[in-house]
Amino acid sequence: MKHFKLRLAIASALAITASLVYAETTDITVGVTLEPPHLDPTGAAAGAIDSVVYANVFEGLTRFAADGSILPALAESWTVSDDGLVYTFSLHSGVKFHDGSSMDSGDVKFSLDRARADDSTNAQKALFSGIDTVEALDSTTVRVTLSAPNGAFIFNMAWGDAVIVAEETIADAKTNPVGTGPFVFTNWVQGDSITITKNTDYWGTPARLNSATFKFISDPTAAFAALMAEDVDAFPIYPAPENLPQFKADSRFQVLIGSTEGETILSTNNKMPPFDNVKVREAMSHAIDRQAIIDGAMFGLGTPIGTHFAPHNPDYVDLTGQSNYDPALAISMLADAGYPDGFKTTLKLPPPSYARRGGEIIAAQLREVGIDVEISNLEWAQWLEQVFRGYDFGLTIVSHTEPMDIGIYARPEYYFQYDSADFQQLMVDLNAATDPDARSTILKAAQQMISDDYVNGYLFQLASATVANANIVGLWHNAPTQATDLTAVYWND
User: Fold this and answer.
1) 351-377 residue pLDDT tens
2) Which of 134, 136, 248, 331 is the most exposed place for a label (fewest CB within 10 A)?
């Protein structure tokens, strides 16, 4: 009897221990480089917002899948009129916001009308400019009428800027986001972390994780230390590629290498002299050694680009030859443009390591041809204020991780201030085109045009390198949008 009781006690202890282990592995800590300025994805351009809340907290009518395809989300289906102007969405029934209120067609109408309003602060307001009317036909049916056909409309509705919000809670969304997703915002410790927890009343397939904590770690050395100590379980877009061989050799980790939508560019203020002269921009493009930047800043991770388009897209055109590295040619072209002795300018760098490390290399390359560059390292909020909104810069480096975003070149008010009526017409034609071959032709022409105009210095396509615990399943290999989608992530115990 004593032996039986002992065995029973041991079995009970093992069961309790196993349950504790299981409980511990339903939580995850994710490292992220940038702390979001706030948590309303419809009110700022910062990709760091979507990296926390996209698909996890907020949802749109449609959404991006891991492979970049478009899936239904809050809209279970839709129909399109023969003339391409009317989209009728059927919403899932029984969907609730995290505060318990129902999500219905009225919330969709409010969200789309708000995004396209004259006083809208949506960073991608252009996505909604073609909407003529939004009508709530009944609680689960919404009719959207466009002013002209738009072959990318369903794609546009998958952006984080197009998520559905409630009028009653949107005013506080920057610090207390209330969405419909499988996770609920729980806590934000400024300067440290954000925590989300499982939505037990989720309308769709529930999350398998009980909670997730996004830990802000901007320093590459600190990111490495946190992973090695297992203080963080995963780090998407890992900022120190030089460490990847060490992680690959350690059985505790998995390293996922994929693609992103991130065109990393030397953004140029097209309205500021001397960059308002296309000959100066062209000369500068020949001073840049892309491969040296990829090797020196990214340790070989990255694909050279010659225009603002993802190389993995079937419509990509390789235009790198138009801005090949030729410093002697750059010096000669600067002289022809009226700057035989070069000029001075600013290079304002946001926090990501690709920008800080790449900036030092580019500054040295530009100095070789007579362009004296003054580097300023800015925090993200400063960069948004001075560069993105204030146009107070000569040059900057940033990776544009929004999907299929060549349309930003049709916006003269966008921070690099390129103003081309011809390009703007191309985007009008693209939106009106529904035939795949016609759209492909237009996209290729658009790539050529901005390359010919040397709008920016096109550097490389950012790779997606994720380091994670070997037992984690469901992390995205690629980054088709700015997201750390945890909706299907779990531990393989």
Assistant:
1) 888 999 999 999 999 999 999 999 999
2) 248
Q: How many CB atoms lie within 10 A of CB 174?
A: 15
User: How many other C-beta atoms can be found within 10 angstroms of the C-beta atom of residue 3?
Assistant: 7
Picking from 331, 350, 210, 244, the residue whose alpha carbon sits closest to that of residue 279 is 331
Of 457, 39, 97, the residue nearest 284 (C-alpha)? 457
The DSSP output letter for 490 is: E
Cβ neighbours for 233, distance < 8 A, ≥ 6 positions apart: 28, 29, 30, 468, 469, 472
Q: Token digits for 455?
A: 């709008």
State the Cα–Cα distance between residues 44 and 163, nearest whole angstrom: 13
Tell me how long the chain is.
493
Give me the half-sphere count of Cα atoms (radius 13 Å) on the Cβ side of residue 451. Answer: 22
Cα–Cα distance for residue pair 32/50, rounded to 1 Å: 12
- Tell me the β-bridge partners of 400: 263
Let me know: does 355 contact 349? Beta carbons within 8 Å: yes
The residue whose two tokens read 């022409």 is 445
Instruction: Give, in order, the Cα–Cα distances in Å from 229 to each of 223, 226, 232, 317.
Output: 10, 5, 8, 43
| Residue 289: strand, helix, or coil | coil
DSSP 53-79: HBTTTB--SEEE-TTS-EEESSEEEEE
Q: Which of 101, 102, 85 is nearest to 93 (CA)?
A: 102
Helix or strand or coil: residue 311?
Answer: coil
- Specify the residue for token string 């693609």: 259
C-alpha to C-alpha distance for 117 and 84, rounded to whole angstroms = 23
Query: For tokens 């060490």, what's the residue?
Result: 246
Token pair 């990829």 is at which residue?
Answer: 294
Exposure of 459 in the CB half-sphere (CA atoms within 13 A): 31
The CA distance from 461 to 354, in Å, is 11
Are the beta carbons of 115 and 162 closer than 8 angstroms?
A: yes
CA distance 301 to 305: 13
Give the Cβ contact number of residue 179 at 10 Å. Answer: 28
The DSSP annotation for 196-263 comes to EEE-TT-SSSPPS-SEEEEEE---HHHHHHHHHTTSSSEESS-S-GGGHHHHHT-TTEEEEEEEEEEE
Query: What is the pLDDT confidence band of residue 210, given thresholds at 50, 70 and 90?
Result: very high
Q: Is the peptide bond before 274 cis (omega within 30 degrees of 0)?
A: yes
Amino acid at 459: L
- pTM of the full predicted structure? 0.82
Distance CA 85, CA 351 (A): 42
374 DSSP β-pair partners: 346
Confirm if 187 and 194 have CB atoms less than 8 A apart: yes
Categorize the per-residue pLDDT at 43 as very low, low, confident or very high, splitting at 50, 70 and 90.
confident
pLDDT in tens, 398-429: 999 888 899 999 999 999 999 999 999 999 99
| 114 contacts 170 by C-beta, under 8 angstroms | yes
- DSSP β-bridge partners for residue 258: 464
